[in-house]
Amino acid sequence: QVQLVESGGGLVQAGGSLRLSCAASGSIFSINAMGWFRQAPGNERELVATITSGGSTDYVDSVKGRFTISRDNAKNTVYLQMNSLKPDDTAVYYCRAESHLGLFYWGQGTQVTVSS
After folding, report:
1. Which of 23, 63, 76, 95 could form a disulfide with 67 if both were Cys (CB 3.0 to 4.6 A apart)?
2. Ramachandran quadrant class, 47 (left: phi over 0; alpha: psi -120 to 50; beta: rest)
3. Closest CA to 59 of 68, 7, 72
4. pLDDT digits over 76-107, tens only?
């Protein structure tokens, strides 16, 4: 089992920045890729960014150039640096870990609200 705890959400004005953190515990040796997802009211959950154990990253087009995903293996933590935030970025952000066996683990989510 893997436990994930997100933090760092909040209220920010458009153009501002936030950094989300996702701390992993438990069977962390089993973790392969990790990612950030978000879900706005009335919308499906969408993938925002992913990072593999080797450090390869990928982003949804809408956040490219504004968001950066990174991981600190020593701290078992994944980060999402979000710059130039827009009201459309308002959502609950979730961290997800994928194990080498293809199992998925989710955090509880953290709210990000961007005011115009």
Report:
1. 63
2. beta
3. 68
4. 999 999 999 999 999 999 999 999 999 999 99
The CB-based long-range contact list for 23-28 (8 Å cut-off, 24+ gap) reads: 23/75, 23/76, 23/77, 24/76, 24/77, 24/78, 24/97, 25/76, 26/1, 26/2, 27/1, 27/2, 27/99, 28/2, 28/76
Angle at 74 between CA 70 and CA 75, to 5 degrees: 75
Measured distance CA(100)–CA(16) in Å, rounded: 36
> CA dihedral in degrees (41, 35, 5, 42; nearest 10)?
10
Query: In 10 A of CB 24, how many CB atoms?
Result: 21
Q: Rounded mean pLDDT of the chain?
A: 95
What values do phi and psi take at 31, rounded to 5?
-75, 135
For 24, residues 6+ apart whose C-beta sits below 8 A from its C-beta are 2, 3, 4, 31, 34, 76, 77, 78, 97
Query: Taking the CA atoms of the chain, what radius of gyration do you get in angstroms?
Result: 13
CA distance 87 to 49: 18
